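Q: Here's a chain of 527 amino acids. Please give me its 3D structure as tokens.
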Amino acid sequence: MSERYERLFEGPNDLYAEDSPVLIKAHVLLRDNETGSVIAQIKFQNLTETDITFLKVRISAVDALTAPIEPSEYYIYNDVKAGAFETFGQNKPLPLPNASARSYTVAVVGVSQSDGTIWQNEDAVWHPDKEAADIAEKELAYKNAVEKKNAAVTADDYKAAAAEFAKLGDHREAAQAYEYCMYEARLCDAVEHRKESRKKKLLITAVILGALAVILVIWFVFAVPAINYGKACDLYNAGEYAKAAEAFDALGNYQDSTVMVKECKYQNANKNYNDEKYGAAFKGYKELGYYKESSKYALECIPHWLESIFEKAGGTASAKEFTAALKDFDGTYYCGDVHMYDVYKPIAKFIESHGDFDYWIDFNDYTYRSELMLTVLGVFPDTYKDVKDLKQVFSDITDSKMRTWNSDDYLADNTDLLKGLWYDYAFVRSYLQDDLVVYDFLIGDWRTTNGDYYLTFTEEDGSTHMQYNLPHTRPDGVKYYSIESMTVYLKDDEKHLATLYEITMTGYDSMSVYCIKDKKTYTLYRN
């Protein structure tokens, strides 16, 4: 009996498009010899550390004469659960509507990931890319090696994981992870060796030295270490973890002393965290690396440590101590699978959580918090998300460029910078809507989509003027207008005569305007 499926076409492997989160590993075209239909099968690989949940592809088929079969077909991969660098999709058949198809080209046009990231590019050019494929294979091998290492218990387990890391050469932290696994393997072997050698030593001692020698050996080999071990345990139980770590360390390989050294340091880091000594806790967790959840807790220390530095006027020296502790976090096996970008994330969230622009600036000392944050950001490369722009903004705050009466010049020169940070950083929105800056920020013509209503701000002779046709009540004697906390007032000298509008900025170039007169809200866009 003949094979049911016949391979009609096999496309080029390892197709990649610039900035794509996936690689097209392989794709084939099969004919079902029972039904006569043709089926495409495609194998993808996730190129990121974030799960892929959705995929959309376009298939353009041609017949035996290479004539295009129109139109192109789109296929959806719903509810995908492709983890970091995993392959997927190869088991999903994609029936082509025209059985005369004999080959095809494929393109990924849309990808959705578990963190909400969406990649779309209908016009992306897909071409073989061996370099991207090699990196993807190494990343998958590295991930599998890390899983083996984390699950290792025996010396053989650690040696097997070390062998996987050895194959990866200098990729990521493979070399350091190899050393770590071999160290743990030797430690496991040493424990087993001590168990066997202890039995032999006891037998030889009893035969050669006799009863007296046995008593002396027992005393010095067992009794004294046992007494010291008990003292170390007492220190541990009393919560004197730093002293207990030193006591266990002095016992060398006695019983589980090497493990207890780590446990004491771990508990001491926990104690420092609970006592709000976040700097000491961070350093303790960082030193422990893989042990338990040390890497995770080290990251949790970062925003708290920053808060203590900024709120307690830690000054430049404290900021430098903080940045020194962050350095070398990446590229050492002591830090487990945590990398510098993971260290940057809680710092970015710290900046986001302090949304009042005035938090970052002291009118008596322009170089306070903004300068400290510049020191912290100096650890990270400009290629990380927003790092370059944040460095620029905090540098401008430090130089007091953002606190001048000529804010219109600053806004004009830095529009792209501020617009890029608008959505993610509330302190930028706070600055732009400050009562002094907002006049310059709003300069321009704002209109509804149909053009019926407008709110226009113009600058002339150093003053801003407002024109509007949104519903309003204009009392007599109006000379001026003012904007306070994003509410527009009409006034005569210092007296408010009427409240016109309440403005809510929905974007750098969009606003919602609540009109006091008709109690309706209108959406306007900057033209």
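Q: Can you summarize the key feature?
A: The longest strand covers residues 495-507.
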